[in-house]
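User: Sequence in, structure out. Go.
Assistant: Echoing your sequence, followed by the structure tokens.
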Amino acid sequence: PKLKQLEEEEPQLHVQWDAHLAEIQVQVMGQVQLEILQHLIAERFGVQVSFDPGTILYKETIANTVEGVGHFEPLRHYAEVHVRMEPGERGSGLTFATACSQDVLALNWQRLILTHLQEREHKGVLTGSPITDIRFTLTGGRAHLKHTEGGDFRQATYRAVRQGLMEAESVLLEPWYSFRLEVPPQMVGRAMTDVEQMQGKVTLESQEEPLAVLTGRAPVSAMKDYSMEVAAYTRGLGKLSCTYYGYLPCHNAEEVCGQMGYDPLLDEANPSSSVFCAHGAGYAVPWDQVKDLMHAEADAMAPRVVKPAAVSAGSSVTERWLDVEEVDRIVAGASGANKKDRIDPSRRWGQKFQGKREAFMQKRSPSSKPVPVKEKYLLVDGYNIIFAWDDLKELAETTVDGARGRLADILCNYQAFVRCHVILVFDAYRIQGHAEEATDYHNIRIVYTREAETADQYIERFAHANSRQYDVTVATSDGLEQIIIRGEGCRLWSAADLREEVSRINAIIREYLGEN
């Protein structure tokens, strides 16, 4: 408290308490200030203090634009934040803005996120030093009407910043002095050599008697004790004066990082992972995998490497639906593509006149052998459909189990009218030691895949083994999966097609019940 009192009187003095190290830290600009501070404390408060050897206050920034994302969804909590992080002007510090529509995220949540961005000192990932010269722009996010609380956005915001820093190209910064050095003319060469060895920049302003004048700038870490060295080699004739210049890229960044030994993944106070919910429990997802599971749309202005990823519980990867003609073109152009006849994708089961048409054709050709009718199978990529249908997606934000049960009930109702084999497939590949689990739910079969096997892989395996023996249709909006399934000669429905087919059958059922 006494040092804080001095800090209020002297703006250039910065005092802070490090609870982790249990020590008082002061930020000063040289040995002279330390001596003045030591004398002042003794005179004002009667306390004798000593100082440990000082360290340089490094900072960090980024060299490229990234999108930082954070998701916080333990049970009965929900928040997601997307922040674009761009390199700012040197010396600009941290600036904050929003480019998020109120249709995407309410204004009160946006203000709360901006508050959380500004309320703490965010640490970099190279040395754990404070970050600076970064422009933050809120680009998106999501809240839940029932489960979102203010603290949820705090966690999501901190994790978004940290995830973006892990993904960005970080740069270590160090403070530099701007100096004026006066030495005898015969010692100019020595002085210029010293500054160059410090990785600084020097200009000879004047070489006239009695003292030559050199100006320039150099890192504080290299020049902090140079004034005593100048006094020694000039026999007291030289004079060095330094002023704070600003932060520039560190001249020995690798050496500093190695000395500090900071590991960002072990910093529990600044996590870079996100928390998602599956099977009624929260689980952590590492920073380099979270973008595949985000629920809100990605920032179009922030570059990102897109890689195909399986859709799992709690995920909401936005997939691009490929129409069948485009899939066929991709399959036909691929080496070794399956050449067997394609099935008209516009056909739908349960069409009103299908039975009459078959009877009419048999009547026209009584001598021909009847064509055997293949058993029909419908395979549904469960989580892909859940997060593609708005009503199920909204339900999944509250309870994934409820969304799974609702989809299963819809398919049970559908199967009862269409009379095909329905297999609903869910990912369980993240569950350690999980064996493939298949259970009968009323009139359909639900499969949970084994460890390390996604729903996509199960469906591909089934299609490859049974596409010639059975009439197989797959419902998914996974673009990569569409190409593989179409290559096997199976029918292909997008999530929207399945929704349309279910709605059509429900309308027929309602009409039938109305008439009877």
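User: And one key feature?
Assistant: Residues 305-324, 334-354, 363-368 have pLDDT under 50 and may be disordered.
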